[in-house]
């Protein structure tokens, strides 16, 4: 018996022509076997290769009879904004979010996520058990240590989200800068299923470093108190240095020694003083920038076209 719940598959595409067909071969048969009805939403984020040709050719060649929508972004938006656009278009009772078409997992994991969600969870993620890059490990460690919520994040390959969770996220605010963190802190039950990566294949793609860096900085500001801690440490260091200079001057007076006259101590004091002031100003300006974006930047993504691919 197939499941009667309507399922949405939201897939992020950015120059994935080399891997898209393999992904569809792995994922679609599982969904066709498990679910009576499902839709495919492909978010095309300014692809400059043959990704769309591969998709259209695959649909025609395999005579797919499912609903296929392609969301064409107006310009390169990056993963988070593009997937928000795709999820907003999804109409399924449950929404699968595939942040990448790289498949290093057994397709049965897709069904495992669905079964785990039916146990009372609203968000279930699949995570590969593998060694992370140093920068990724450092980010997750700092984030989880300074997070304002109880939810801990980690690497995720794809996830399944219930309609209740989608509605909860939309009700929380217009701007969703980092879905993974929002899902973990939305107040609903979450779970993670780990899997051992299959084979030795690699994605062959490199993430956009500037996008990742900006996302990491914004996430720290939105969901952690790390910036507050940094400002406290900088201010405290500046205060301790000032106290140290005062103690040094007083000790010279009591010892009847003439304070050392020179530029060295003065320049050190001024340098650290200006460093502390400008460090605090940088943090304050970043906070103001985020607040302004939250208040005034209502439209978080721009779609140029929504294409429906249907076999006649």
Explain this structure.
With 312 residues, the protein is of the alpha/beta class. The protein is 51% helix and 16% strand. It has helices at residues 17-34, 51-62, 79-89, 108-117, 134-146, 163-172, 179-184, 209-223, 226-254, 263-296, and strands at 7-13, 38-44, 67-73, 94-98, 123-128, 158-162, 190-195, 303-309. It has an eight-stranded mixed β-sheet with strand order 7-5-6-4-1-2-3-8, sandwiched between helices. Helix 2 links the parallel strand 2 and strand 3 (67-73). The longest helix is centred in the last third of the chain and has 34 residues, at 263-296. The model has no long low-confidence stretch (mean pLDDT 81).
């Amino acid at each position: 018996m197939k499941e009667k719940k309507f399922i949405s598959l939201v897939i992020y595409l950015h120059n994935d022509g080399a891997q898209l067909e393999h992904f569809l071969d792995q994922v679609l048969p599982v969904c066709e076997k498990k679910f009576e009805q499902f839709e495919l939403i492909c978010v095309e984020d300014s692809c400059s290769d043959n990704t769309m040709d591969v998709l259209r050719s695959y649909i025609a060649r395999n005579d797919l009879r499912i609903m296929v929508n392609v969301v064409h972004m107006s310009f390169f938006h990056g993963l988070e904004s593009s997937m928000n656009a795709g999820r907003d278009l999804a109409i399924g009772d449950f929404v699968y979010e595939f942040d990448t078409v790289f498949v290093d997992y057994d397709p049965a994991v897709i069904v495992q996520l669905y079964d785990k969600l039916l146990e009372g969870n609203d968000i279930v993620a699949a995570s590969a058990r593998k060694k992370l890059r140093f920068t990724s490990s450092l980010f997750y460690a700092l984030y989880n240590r300074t997070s304002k919520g109880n939810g801990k994040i980690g690497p995720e390959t794809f996830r399944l989200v219930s309609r209740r969770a989608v509605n909860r996220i939309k009700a929380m605010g217009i701007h969703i800068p980092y879905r993974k963190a929002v899902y973990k802190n939305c107040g609903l039950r979450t779970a993670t299923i780990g899997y051992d990566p299959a084979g030795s294949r690699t994605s062959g793609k490199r993430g956009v470093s500037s996008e990742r860096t900006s996302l990491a900085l914004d996430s720290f500001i939105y969901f952690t108190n790390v910036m507050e801690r940094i400002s406290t440490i900088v201010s405290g260091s500046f205060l301790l240095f000032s106290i140290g200079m005062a103690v040094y001057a007083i000790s010279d007076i009591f010892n009847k020694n003439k304070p050392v006259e020179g530029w060295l101590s003065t320049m050190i004091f001024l340098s650290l003083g200006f460093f502390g002031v400008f460090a605090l100003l940088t943090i304050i300006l970043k906070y103001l920038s985020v607040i302004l974006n939250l208040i005034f930047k209502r439209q978080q993504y721009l779609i140029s076209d929504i294409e429906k691919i249907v076999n006649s």
